[in-house]
Design brief:
Helices cover about 50% and strands about 20% of the residues. It is globular and about 50 Å long.
Length: about 220
């Protein structure tokens, strides 16, 4: 029964995903980033929620895996990048020119030959400063395609983007990856703060990672 229900849900999602994107049912929610020493909001991460016409909410853990499997995630990621750029322009008009927004980028995007051209098109469309967009990639993408990621990150830097490594510490984190790929920001996996520190090691591990990141010129989230 569980497998059947899951398949029914998947079919429902796939049947209405294109219309949902056209109807702008995917909404950008912003999770603030706060400086720990001043409590000032310095930026935000763009999160996506799917709100159906009847007001019901579909959470990312229901539709993101489906989109990653069928490839629709690339359309959604570009849509969210556009939403972030449009919002930043509105902020700028209201006098807030120093806020940065992080936008997730799925692994499928990095296999698209026109990826760099597409994000360049969006930036130009909204006259958005690329330095105010942080492109977030997962640790797994980098480990799977180390050489390709080196080249891609360099190209993104040339365009003015910063790159963040998401969920560091959630898998087989590689220090060699930090040495090889010039990402700008290290985002620690939230499980470091989950409160299940059985052996009393959490604080020391966190402190060591933060110090190491800062020593090699990376910011931490």
């Amino acid at each position: 029964d569980g497998l059947h229900d899951k398949e029914v849900k998947r079919n429902e999602i796939e049947q209405c995903m294109h219309a949902a994107l056209d109807n702008r049912e995917f909404k950008m929610y912003l999770q603030p980033k706060v400086l720990l020493n001043t409590s000032a909001v310095c930026g935000a991460e763009a999160l996506v929620r799917w709100i159906r016409p009847d007001g019901s909410l579909i959470y990312p853990d229901e539709f993101i895996p489906v989109f990653e499997q069928n490839g629709f995630i690339t359309d959604l990621d570009m849509y969210m990048l556009e939403e972030a750029c449009a919002f930043l322009k509105r902020l700028e008009k209201n006098g807030y020119a120093d806020i940065c927004i992080s936008v997730n980028q799925s692994r499928i995007l990095f296999y698209k030959a026109d990826y760099l051209n597409e994000i360049q098109r969006i930036i130009h469309k909204y006259h958005c400063d690329p330095s105010r967009i942080i492109l977030e990639v997962t640790e797994g993408i980098t480990m799977d395609n180390l050489d390709e990621m080196k080249v891609l990150v360099r190209e993104l830097h040339k365009m003015g983007f910063a790159v963040s490594m998401d969920d560091f510490g959630s898998g087989y984190s590689s220090l060699n990856m930090l040495k090889e790929v010039p990402v700008d920001i290290l985002k620690l996996d939230m499980r470091f703060l989950a409160g299940n520190d059985v052996f009393g090691r959490e604080a020391s591990i966190l402190a060591s990672i933060v110090h190491m990141a800062h020593d090699i010129g990376m910011a931490t989230v």
